[in-house]
Design a protein that fits this description.
By secondary structure, the chain is mostly helical. The protein has helices at about 5-10, 50-60, 75-80, 95-105, 120-130, 145-155, 170-180, 185, 195, 205-210, 215-225, 240-250, 260-265. The protein has a domain at about 15-105: Leucine-rich Repeat Variant, CATH 1.25.10.
Length: about 270
């Protein structure tokens, strides 16, 4: 490597995926050289470096279908981005997850369900992001919580109750944010206070009244901020000074006790 290439980090070697030097004379795509649609160090399907492979298929997408069975996974993965959609089904069980990622990004929606139980989480993330919402049901118990988060964001509202007891609070937060009037009371009693907090601005006064004794001070603070003054009750003498200050301030008609941005006021960590 020359000094200038070393300084820029450019790759000057031209070797294939087995480590042998590439040979344009022996390449089945050598007919493209004359039209400058391929060449050493910048556009070459035989090269082991993905950017060069990618450039080759970007310039010559018609060569992609024939490369889907190439022994090098990078070639198959890049070719899958350019190949005819009807040829992608043959890669659903490809041994390399990188290839299956490419397939998941382009496979017709009707066939995506076949990858919903792929062993690789990145593949399932792509599936959950693209699959039709009506087909997400099999993924609500995915072993990866981030996949389930995506599912919760896109699942038809009528199926959200199936995720209301998800073991991960981050997933239940998504459920709480999307919950309708029927599911909302259930999420308001979630074991995680961060989930409960997300429901308060959509609860009725009657529902808020039933939460005045919530064990978390942040919940009681928000209830003290939202309930009609006549219903503050025990919150006026709450054990937490911030909750008590909010309730008493409202009862005394002190507008400054009701900040417009309560989250800016609620910075204490849970004890």
């Amino acid at each position: 490597m020359t000094e200038s290439h070393a300084a820029t980090g450019a790759i000057t070697e031209t070797v294939d995926w087995t480590g042998r030097p590439t040979d344009c004379a022996a390449c089945p795509h050598r007919d493209l050289l004359a039209s400058q649609r391929c060449g050493p160090r910048w556009s070459c399907m035989q090269d082991r470096y993905a950017p060069r492979i990618d450039r080759f298929f970007a310039l010559n997408p018609e060569r992609a279908d024939a490369a889907l069975t190439h022994p090098y996974f990078e070639v198959r993965a890049v070719a899958a981005r350019h190949a005819d959609l009807f040829h992608l089904a043959g890669l659903l069980n490809d041994p390399d997850e990188t290839v299956r990622w490419s397939v998941a990004l382009r496979l017709p929606l009707a066939q995506l369900r076949k990858l919903s139980r792929d062993p690789d989480r990145e593949v399932r993330i792509r599936v959950a992001s693209r699959i039709r919402p009506a087909d997400l049901h099999p993924m609500i118990h995915d072993p990866d919580y981030y996949v389930r988060q995506i599912v919760a964001k896109r699942l038809p509202p009528g199926l959200l109750p199936l995720m209301a007891a998800d073991p991960e609070a981050e997933v239940r937060k998504v459920v709480a944010q999307r919950a309708d009037a029927t599911l909302l009371p259930r999420m308001a009693r979630d074991p995680d206070p961060a989930v409960r907090l997300l429901t308060l601005d959509r609860l009725t006064d009657t529902q808020l009244l039933g939460l005045r004794s919530d064990p978390d001070w942040r919940i009681r603070y928000e209830i003290a901020r939202r309930l009609p003054i006549a219903q503050l009750g025990a919150l006026l003498g709450d054990d937490d000074p911030e909750v008590r200050r909010m309730a008493q301030g409202r009862a005394d008609g002190q507008a400054e006790s009701c900040p417009a941005d309560p989250e800016a006021h609620l910075r204490r960590s849970l004890s």
